[in-house]
Amino acid sequence: MSVQPRRRADLSVFLLAMSIRVEQIDLYHIRMSLVSPFETSFGVTTERESIIVRVLAEGLAGWGECVADAAPGYSYETVTTAWHILRDYLAPALLRAPLDDPRDAPAHFRFVRGHNMAKATLEAPLWDIAAQQAGQSLARYIGGVRDRVLVGVSIGIQSSPDKLAEVARGYCEAGYRRIKIKIKPGRDLADVRAVRRAIGDTPLMVDANSAYTLDDASLFQQMDEFGLLMIEQPLGYDDIYQHHKLQRQLNTPLCLDESIHSADDARFALEIGACRIINIKQGRVGGMTNAIAVHDVCRQAGAPVWCGGMLETGIGRAFNLALATLPNFTLPGDLSASSRYYRLDLIDPPFELNSDSTLSVPTMPGLGVNVLQDRLDAVTLRHDVLRP
Ligand code: OSB
Ligand code: MG
Asked: Does residue 234's CB lie within 6 angstroms of at least one atom of ligand 1?
């Protein structure tokens, strides 16, 4: 007789955890000043624009952040295209039909081709809510295996190699034990040489953001002598094939970023030897579900991964941190302390660097960070509220 009520209680917990009926979606177009300009081969960013999304469902709030930039330099997606796709297609689809599980989001959003960053933005709060429903941190909810994540810093192009070396040394002194520098034609070998001299044997890597062609193979061969951890995305943003031609001429591992949009891309790239490492950004691959799938493909292929960054606020950073707790994230991620990006983050407390060059993974249920609504409002340029 005592069995029945218990069973009913268990079932209700089960049902609660298995459905997300969305009541409201808030879109915030925000703009925040970076603490210092960030220059890459595709441009200079001094102010970061993005979209923060809040989803209300089942009495809970879930958050997400779009990684698209104001300009289509890294990807064809921009804040404006993502806003359009979110407001006019993805949000209405989510408000129309409840989802059983955030893992169903890619199928639910398949009617929109491409626009991975917009899709990831709206999948994120569903993960936040699902993990809260399960009473677990997002990291634990997705099967993460660590409570601290090894991190490095990504340094933009500076006015000179000497200036870059000084900045890199500063970050080493601040406790970062992996340095990544951005390169572009004309600002490559001398920059690497200067930084290598300045930071000794601290792990060092370069990111070209697709600024070179196969004709530059000899330049990358010359980089072999600096013992780089990897060379990130040297060739076309839409190329995989030619990277394999470059990889076979180098000792240094290549890592793909821009070219990988799905688990299939990752499988193909690793199978043909286009790279030995993959940078996973949940925004670029269309959300957490796909990011986990890319992780699993790489793990099976024996290729390590690391978590990329897109100058996110603490909201996007918290998602990245949770993702990077999965077992095959064995290389330091582009996940620096809040203060490396913004004077005031949107979350409290901000992320701080531990003395072992790690960030601690939030342990509270869901995303596990407190979003500061007044700070969000202060940086908001436009706010739309969407309901069924
Ligand atoms: O290529 O990894 C990249 C920032 C914006 C766009 C592309 C990239 C980056 C970074 C910064 O390297 C990483 C970070 O958020 O710290
Ligand atoms: Mg990159």
From this structure: no
Question: Could you identify the atom of ligand 1 that is nearest to the CA of residue 38?
Answer: 4
Domains of the chain in sequence order: 18-135+373-386 (3.30.390.10), 141-370 (3.20.20.120)
User: Known catalytic residue: 184?
Assistant: no
CA neighbor of 147 nearest in space, from 309, 2, 364, 306: 364
- Express each pLDDT in 202-242 by its tens digit: 999 999 999 999 999 999 999 999 999 999 999 999 999 99
Q: What is the DSSP letter of 99?
A: B
Return the DSSP state at 78.
Answer: B
Peptide bond just before 203 cis, omega within 30 deg:
no
The model's pTM is: 0.94
State if residue 154 touches ligand 1 by the CB under 6 angstroms criterion.
yes
The pocket of ion ligand 2, defined by CB under 5 A, consists of 207, 232, 257
Residue type, 51: I
- As a whole number of angstroms, the distance between CA 47 and CA 33 comes to 4
Q: What is the pLDDT of residues 139-182, one digit of tens each?
A: 999 999 999 999 999 999 999 999 999 999 999 999 999 999 99
CA of 78 to the centre of ligand 2 (A): 17
Contacts of 376 (CB under 8 A, 6+ apart): 28, 30, 52, 346
Is the separation of the CB atoms in 33 and 378 below 8 Å? no
